[in-house]
From TrEMBL:
<keyword id="KW-0378">Hydrolase</keyword>
<dbReference type="InterPro" id="IPR033932">
    <property type="entry name" value="YtcJ-like"/>
</dbReference>
<dbReference type="GO" id="GO:0016810">
    <property type="term" value="F:hydrolase activity, acting on carbon-nitrogen (but not peptide) bonds"/>
</dbReference>
<dbReference type="Pfam" id="PF07969">
    <property type="entry name" value="Amidohydro_3"/>
</dbReference>
<feature type="domain" description="Amidohydrolase 3">
    <location>
        <begin position="54"/>
        <end position="539"/>
    </location>
</feature>
<dbReference type="InterPro" id="IPR032466">
    <property type="entry name" value="Metal_Hydrolase"/>
</dbReference>
<dbReference type="InterPro" id="IPR011059">
    <property type="entry name" value="Metal-dep_hydrolase_composite"/>
</dbReference>
<protein>
    <submittedName>
        <fullName>Amidohydrolase</fullName>
    </submittedName>
</protein>
<dbReference type="InterPro" id="IPR013108">
    <property type="entry name" value="Amidohydro_3"/>
</dbReference>
């Protein structure tokens, strides 16, 4: 049978499990062109089999919506994948050894780039010194970011490339660079990356995302993080090459709606993402009401006050684009809520709520701040892997804040109870692209009272990311939704809830609650067999 010209291609997937609210017992799905056309039972699929262009036998596999990673730095992720990545390196000595090997292997690089060191986990208890780095690199320029990307260690040769950097705030001899000094050396380091290297890194990052069942990423770019060319190049690459969708944000503060034109010219959907209200806990730069427990009276660094936040939110609301901020510490988050509330007083609460402005990280939320997020309809773009990496009574959060304050961080259950929309992400390369690991980290939070069900976390990592960009019709497998999905090899499907306080009916098969993979810590995570975006396959597992 020949197809009519322009007729969308139809595919029937059957003999598996389809995770869909349209039918909790679905085993089959039809995709027509770039959209889901039908979801239902194996018996009903028989009547469709002769009328489709292709029948795909799932052989028992699970089909879910593709994940959305709501906070990614694509080029930096790709550079870490293809270059020097110190994530998880257990000692300073081993880190220096890897730096030596990388320098020897890259003799033509004008500036050596690396990422991921975390001295809080090293027995030496300190970052590499300037002298050690100079020796390991043979005196070449090196830029090496801490795991949180808010501070860096560098070599003398790189400092010498940046005029007057030693006079900038954030430069302290013998300490990692922060603040203005860090931004200056970062700009110099990334200026050394050629367009070809940048494209190679972006391709590597998007390919890794697709291989993990990620169908969309939110690129958090900005003048202090990357460059306009980096953002526009990435958006062009994503538009030309089959792969995950890329939604771009540009973190530039606005004072009037007239300034929003440049945001649109760049292809960004908002002046949001990493528009810094403060820094990070690991680098002692997150802005706190009370001092850090391990830094002698230091309370971090604030970059935007409530007045600047109010001006930005009002300008974005009036321009019809999203506003957003990076805010981690309780003082920073207080400024955000006060600023957004002041903007609502100026332009109207309903308009602010409708704009779905978003806050990245939002870690130190008190009950009062959570109520403010709910009142203002602020989306919390959060990274559960931060808790997995640095939560608990003996890890970095507790070192920085003390155990009691550390236990208040990342209160996902309270946020959901209050009606705060959550969108999950990785902040890659801060923590790796790892969607099922992210869902596991939210469901098995190191502070039991902050845990959420696997279903709630999965929804926040799929539909939540789409809702964060204003789309309520996507991130779920129902007729009419975009055909963005992933096929998984996995074990038994279960309904996992945090503990017995959650209603037991939801775990009873008679409730019709669809199951998801068992994410109990220590169990193997699902393996992605195929990722499809807008009906087009963008990843197939080798030998599948």
């Amino acid at each position: 049978m020949s197809e009519r010209p322009g007729k969308p291609r139809t595919v029937l997937l059957r003999n598996g499990t389809v995770y869909s609210p349209a039918d909790p017992f679905a085993t089959a799905m039809i995709v027509e062109g770039d959209s889901v056309a039908w979801v239902g039972s194996e018996g009903a699929a028989d009547s469709f089999a002769d009328g489709v262009d292709e029948v795909a036998d799932l052989d028992g596999a699970l089909v879910t919506p593709a994940f959305t990673d709501a906070h990614v730095h694509t080029t930096a992720t790709g550079l870490a994948l293809t270059g020097l990545d110190l994530t998880g390196v257990p000692t300073l000595a081993e880190a220096l050894g890897r730096i030596r090997a990388h320098a020897a292997a890259r003799p033509a690089d004008r500036v050596l780039l690396g990422h991921g060191w975390d001295a809080s986990a090293w027995p030496e208890g300190r970052p590499p010194s300037l002298r050690e780095l100079d020796e390991a690199t043979g005196g070449r320029p090196l830029y090496l970011t801490r795991a949180d990307v808010h501070s860096a260690v560098v070599t003398t040769a790189l400092l010498d490339l940046v005029p007057r950097v030693r006079e900038l705030p954030g430069h302290t001899p013998g300490a990692p660079l922060t603040g203005a000094a860090h931004h200056a050396v970062r700009a110099a380091a990334y200026a050394s990356v050629t367009p070809a290297q940048r494209t190679e890194a972006q391709r590597a990052a998007l390919a890794r995302a697709a291989s993990l069942g990620i169908g969309s990423v939110h690129e958090c770019a900005g003048p202090e993080i990357s460059s306009e060319d980096d953002l526009t190049g990435l958006l062009a690459l994503a538009g030309e090459t089959p792969g995950p969708r890329v939604t771009g944000y540009w973190a530039q503060a606005l004072t009037s709606a007239d300034e929003a034109g440049r945001i649109r010219e760049l292809g960004a959907v908002g002046a949001a993402g990493d528009l810094f209200v403060d820094g990070s806990l690991g680098s002692h730069t997150a802005s706190l009401h009370e001092p850090y427990a391990d830094a002698g009276g230091v309370t971090g660094t604030g970059h935007l006050d409530a007045a600047a936040i109010a001006a930005h939110v009002a300008a974005c609301t009036e321009a019809g684009i999203q506003a957003g901020f990076h805010a981690i510490g309780d003082a920073a988050l207080t400024a955000v809520v006060e600023g957004v509330r002041a903007a609502a007083d100026k332009v109207g609460l309903a308009r602010v709520r409708a704009a779905r402005h978003r806050i990245e990280h939002a870690e130190m939320l008190t009950p009062e701040l959570i109520a403010g997020f709910a009142e203002l309809a602020l989306t919390a773009s959060v990274q559960p892997a931060f808790d997995a990496a640095w939560g608990g009574d003996d890890a970095m959060y507790a070192q920085r804040l003390g155990r009691e304050r550390a236990r208040t961080l990342n209160p996902y259950a309270a946020m959901l109870r209050a009606g705060v929309p959550l969108a999950l992400g990785s902040d890659s390369p801060v923590t790796p692209l790892d969607p099922w690991g992210t869902v596991r980290a939210a469901a098995f939070h190191r502070t039991p009272g902050h845990r959420v069900s696997v279903r709630a976390a999965f929804t926040a990592h799929t539909r939540g990311g789409w809702r964060a960009v204003g789309r309520d019709d996507a991130g779920v497998l129902v007729p009419g939704a975009p055909a963005d999905y992933a096929v998984w090899a996995t074990g038994d499907l279960v309904v996992q809830v945090p503990d017995a306080r959650v209603a037991d009916w939801s775990t009873d098969p008679r409730s019709g609650t669809p199951g998801l993979p068992d994410l109990t810590p220590g169990t193997a995570l699902p393996v992605c067999l195929r990722t499809v975006v807008a009906g087009r396959t963008v990843h197939t597992r080798p030998n599948e």
